[in-house]
Amino acid sequence: MKIVNISVNSTDPKMIIPPARELEDEFGLEIELFCWDSSELDDDLLKYQELVRVTKDADLILIRCMADPTRFNRFDKYENHLKEAKGLVLVYSGNADVKFVYRNLFSGSDEEFIELGKYVGYRGSKTNGVCCFG
Fold first, then answer.
1. Torsion of Cα atoms, 61 then 127 then 9 then 107, to 10°
2. What are φ and ψ of residue 29, in 5° steps?
3. What domain count does the chain have?
4. pTM metric for this prediction
């Protein structure tokens, strides 16, 4: 499983590593993580190009933002790649309106959208005793 995790003016994107390792242990998964802060991607074209490359075949792309993902300067361009991504794309924001503005990028069901949103909101903790990847 490949997961891309981007933080836009939010928490450290590497915070996903411990819960991902727990999932590997608990469910026998192999998770390849790609974590970036949006400022890194804005400042470094090579990192942005790597992001685009790994997005194409990622199983899950998480974008966590405090407000709006457009604070990632390359987001408008990157959004085109998100629309073509084969995996699930979740834009998670502290602003509920923002989450729903970008709901169209998430190809899963409403139930999956809600469950994954809870998991991301709890920073990888289990929700109601059930892990959304299980």
1. 30
2. -90, 160
3. 1
4. 0.86
* CATH code of the domain containing 70: 3.40.50
Q: What is the pLDDT, as a whole number, of residue 124?
A: 56
Question: What pLDDT was estimated at residue 66?
Answer: 87
Q: Domain range holding 92?
A: 2-121
Q: Is 37 helix (H, G, I), strand (E, B) or coil?
A: strand
Mean pLDDT in each 10-residue stretch from start to end of the chain (134 residues)? 94 87 91 96 97 96 92 96 95 90 95 87 54 41
Q: In this structure, is residue 95 part of a structural domain?
A: yes
How do beta strands 32-37 and 60-65 pair?
unpaired
Report yes or no on 117 lying in a domain. Answer: yes
Structure tokens belonging to residue 13: 């994107």
Question: Residue 133 domain-assigned?
Answer: no
